[in-house]
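Students often ask why we bother encoding 3D structure as a string. The short answer is that it lets us treat folding as translation between two languages. Here is a chain of 111 residues written in the first language.
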Amino acid sequence: MSDNASIEIEKIMNILLSVEKKLDSIKLEMDQRKQELLDAAKEAAEKAKEEVIIDIEKSKKKALDEIQNNAEKDASKIMQKNEKNIKILQKRINEKYQDALEIVSLRVLGE
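And here it is in the second language, the structure alphabet:
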């Protein structure tokens, strides 16, 4: 081989080594960017998960509060109805008691 060919081959080898170093550098940078994207995606997923959990907790609390309020309203209505029924029953008891007193009084007096 001639000196000229050896020099050209050496230049080509140097260029190839330089290109290989640049490709390695680019690959390393791509790997780093890929990891950064994965980390960012993981972080975003965690944040979204936390937000969903918070929303679910809020919805659950709201539903439970609504159920409790409805139950309290229903219980209040039932209590009012029961009080009304108790008053009606007490009035009937008093009327029957008065009727019984009157019957006993008439019997005692002999009428």
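Translate back mentally: The longest helix spans residues 3-109. Keep this in mind for the problem set.
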